[in-house]
Amino acid sequence: MGTNKLTDLMVRRLKPGQKTFRVSDGKGLFLQVEPSGSKYWRMAYRYLDKQKQLALGVYPEVTIAEARRLRDAARQQLRDGKDPSLERKRKKAEKLRAASNSFEILALEWHQQRKGDWEPAHAERILNWMKRDLFPDLGQRPVTEITPADVLMTIRKIESRGALDVAKRQRARISEIYRYAIQTGRAAINPAADLIGVVKSERVNHRPALGRENLGPFLRELDQFEQIKEVTRLALRLLILTFVRPGELRGGKWSEIDFERKEWRIPAERMKMRTEHIVPLSSQAEAILEQLKPLTGSSDYLFPSDRSRKAPMSENALSYAMKRMGYQGKATPHGFRATASTILNETGFKPDVIERQLAHIERNKVRAAYNRAEYLQDRRKMMDWWGDFIDATQNRATIIPLHMQAFRS
Fold it and tell me: Are 1 and 25 in contact (CB under 8 A)?
């Protein structure tokens, strides 16, 4: 059988006719010329006693040399007992599967599955972090092709800009995404699992918090400071009295306040640990809410945004207020939790009661089961004492905890 019958000059000079015709190059390869003038490379072959055709491309995009290489590769597949057409379909399906199994697609699916467990703002932050730190290097890679070395390279880039905590979190996030991939049958190996501890350690700098001796001066200054809106002032005072997280305070709604029971019930979907949290209200906290009612009672939110009463106070409003007061680097809104915890522990309140009021969920499942009683009566007494302590501290008085014996461990 003759081969390589055609030359590029011959192919270029082929003129279309009124009907489709073919010109053979040998070993099954031929050029199909359409009346429109289009020229297609085809290969004729037999597989399992059936006559079949394989498309090899369009001339001149596919040259004679390339068409012959493709023909020879297909003939080798036939010698290996494979159907070239089926092999092409299989490889195309693999590419499509790999494209749909990219790290970015998987990560977005994981995020969609998990975001119901997070506050909307936190879910948005995680998505933005992935887009910034993970997708540029790993996003388009099939999850089955990413190696520990690939993950390490990505983590080292984050580490190189000094963001060590972010690097640790992103390694853990990749590991979570791969656990999801394994659970859903898209991967068999977690390339981030063995990289625990690979990020450099750094000294932990906790959020600045006021000590006992600085709390009174801060409270007095807060009352006298003129460059602050009254709603923001009340927000800071309520934050100190309840020591909830700033995000939980900002998102607080009037519907969550039960004045008859003297409780603020924060629903699970707004809590970091996704568990409803009860804040017993001291008389001081109730007084703050009574002052607040004429100012924001027409909004759903305790502390609505200046721009829209249908949205909560901005995330940075409290931090900016404290910065204007001169406390940048000395204290933060979140730091009042540490201040309360330190003083209450030093005073002798039971650690379990304090931790439960801080909404720190017990990690020991057995202890957690016992702690479901919530220590609510002890917490009410503790929050009442804390309200009195805040008043006394602001007024330079001394509060004597006469009932402290009931709280000692």
Answer: no
Q: In DSSP terms, which residues pair with 47 in a beta bridge?
A: 50
What are the structure tokens assigned to 35, written together? Answer: 């009346």
C-alpha to C-alpha distance for 360 and 352, rounded to whole angstroms? 9
Instruction: Yes or no: say if 106 and 176 are a contact pair by the CB < 8 Å rule.
Output: no
- pLDDT tens column, 312-336: 999 899 999 999 999 998 999 999 9
Q: Which residue type sits at 281?
A: L
- For residues 123 and 12, membership in a common domain is answered with no
Residue 408: CB partners within 8 Å, gap ≥ 6?
348, 350
CATH of the domain at 369: 1.10.443.10
Catalytic machinery residues: 245, 272, 334, 337, 360, 370
CB neighbour list of residue 325: distance below 8 Å, 6 or more residues apart: 218, 221, 222, 225, 228
Structure tokens at 265: 């019930």
Q: What is the DSSP letter of 39?
A: E
| Percentage above 70 pLDDT, the chain | 90
Angle, vertex CA 45, rays to CA 44 and CA 49, nearest 5: 135
Could you give the 3-state DSSP secondary structure of residue 235? helix
CATH number at residue 28: 3.30.160.390
pLDDT, tens only, 42-75: 999 999 999 999 999 999 999 999 999 999 999 9
Contacts for 144-149 with beta carbons within 8 Å, 24 or more apart?
A: 144/98, 144/101, 144/186, 144/187, 144/188, 145/98, 146/103, 146/191, 147/191, 148/191, 148/192, 148/194, 148/195
